[in-house]
Design a protein that fits this description.
Elements lengths: L8 H12 L5 H8 L3 H8 L16 H16 L6 H15 L13 H10 L11 H8 L2 H18 L8 E9 L28 E8 L8 E5 L16 E5 L6 H15 L6 E5 L8 H9 L2 E5 L5 H4 L1 H24 L10 H12 L2 H10 L20 H4 L24 H4 L1
Parallel strand pairs: 1-5, 3-4, 5-6
Antiparallel strand pairs: 1-2, 2-3
Helix pairs in contact: 1-2, 1-3, 12-13, 12-14
Length: 423
């Protein structure tokens, strides 16, 4: 009968990593980590690269613990990870370790590996989101809102920001396609159709905005679809605006990191700590961004999914008037010049004018007040706009389409608890 191995998988992984990084020879690694020299040699030389029964754990115990802590932290702060994001973070951990792995470093660990990981941590579960309207109705309930406000109160108190509105921020993005309909009525003859001359060229441009509870507005970030305009597009626009592009004109994580580096950190002020609150879309979060936030004493809270229409200042009182103003300006230009067109290159100037006319100091402050974000006030959100606390329990649950769990937002867990362990 062959002798049972007397070493831990973690010791083998460390030994292989030490040899691959040229820190130790195979013999010295075998002595230091208590792993047979031939075993290390076989793994280093690729003997087990195609071994179908390879180890079920490709992370060290410490790395797995920190990864699970990170998953929990993100869920508690309002940024639950998808399976795709989890795989990307595993790849980052392996890359930083410098050791060999059986993982495909382009695709990450297999679904089978992720299933085994989740089976070892039964406190975690995967749940499918529902359609927007139903999810919004479920998440906009008393329990979720109460939990969010408890987290907000605890965070603001612990950071000492109760009377520091200039250190509390909200950011979000909104898209413009040129197809927006006006909410302003027009006068016309009875029984006739009414048409309005608009000059916005169809496409997709996203504006990312950030506002502070004291009323000031940070520079905007415009995302164009496809590429940046070929002609000059910065005329009549503040010099500190930032520009980028993506295939569809929408957010991707690298763009958000770019905004965080070049706009938020330089323009949020020098006083710390800072609290930044935004929705939990996965295009906003990455390990690199969290590390930058930690290094700059910037703390992040994610809004509960499908509640931004109630809890996010930009959605509550800024984006609506801004879009209507953009529409009004485009209609005015259409009436003045039937041949005028506003394409990608001219849109920034139009948007800049609309922002100047709508994001007044008073309106920005009012947006924070109406959302209960500052001053922190749970009572500002009337229960009449929310489903009852037992709403989720009152409806039948389909196990195959389980709704978003209302415990996604909780108030326990320390800020950045897992990040020191990740690297």
């Amino acid at each position: 009968m062959p002798q049972k191995k007397q070493y831990l998988q973690e010791s083998l992984d460390k030994a292989i990593g030490a040899v691959n990084s040229n820190k130790l020879s195979i013999s010295k690694a075998a002595t230091e980590y208590g792993v047979p020299r031939t075993t290390i040699s076989d793994h280093v030389n690729g003997k087990y690269d195609n071994h179908l029964n390879g180890p079920s754990k490709m992370l060290t115990d410490e790395e797995e613990t920190s990864l699970i802590n990170y998953v929990k932290y993100m869920a508690e702060r309002g940024f639950p990870l998808t399976r795709r994001m989890l795989k990307a973070f595993v790849i980052s951990i392996i890359e930083k370790s410098g050791r060999s792995t059986l993982f495909n470093m382009e695709k990450g660990p297999s679904n089978k590996w992720v299933n085994k990981l989740l089976n070892r941590h039964l406190e975690l579960s995967e749940k499918l989101p529902e359609q927007q309207d139903k999810a919004r109705r479920r998440m906009s309930n008393v329990t979720v809102v109460d939990q969010y406000f408890k987290l907000l109160v605890d965070t603001v108190d612990s950071l000492g920001l109760t009377n520091k509105p200039n250190q509390i921020f909200n950011c979000d993005e909104s898209g413009f396609s040129g197809k927006e309909k006006s909410k302003e009525k027009v006068l016309t003859l009875k029984g006739s159709h009414s048409y309005q001359q608009k000059v916005l060229v169809h496409g997709h441009i996203t504006v990312h905005m950030c506002i502070a509870a004291d009323g000031h507005v940070l520079p905007s970030f415009l995302i164009f679809d496809g590429c940046l305009p070929h002609r000059s597009f910065k005329d009549g626009v503040p010099d500190n605006w930032l520009y980028g592009s993506s295939e569809s004109g929408t957010w991707i994580p690298k763009l958000f990191e770019n905004w965080f580096d070049k706009v938020f950190i330089p323009f949020c002020g020098t006083r710390r700590p800072v609290l930044l609150i935004f929705d939990n879309h996965d295009s906003h979060i990455s390990i690199d961004l969290i590390e930058k936030a930690k290094a700059n004493n910037i703390h992040i809270i994610g809004l509960p999914p499908h509640t931004t229409h109630l809890l996010q200042p930009l959605d509550v009182a800024i984006f609506g008037p801004l879009k209507e103003k953009v529409n009004q300006l485009s209609v005015t230009l259409g009436n003045l010049n039937k041949c005028a067109t506003i394409g990608k290159a001219k849109f920034p100037a139009l948007l800049s004018t609309a922002i100047d006319q709508t994001t007044t100091l008073a309106r920005v402050k009012e947006s924070f007040r109406k959302s209960g974000m500052y001053p922190v006030d749970r009572s500002i959100i009337p229960n009449s706009q929310l489903a009852p606390a037992d709403f989720n329990k009152s409806e039948k649950t389909n196990k195959e389409t389980t709704d978003v769990d209302t415990t996604t937002i909780t108030s326990n867990g320390k800020l950045f608890i897992s990040f020191d362990l990740l690297y």
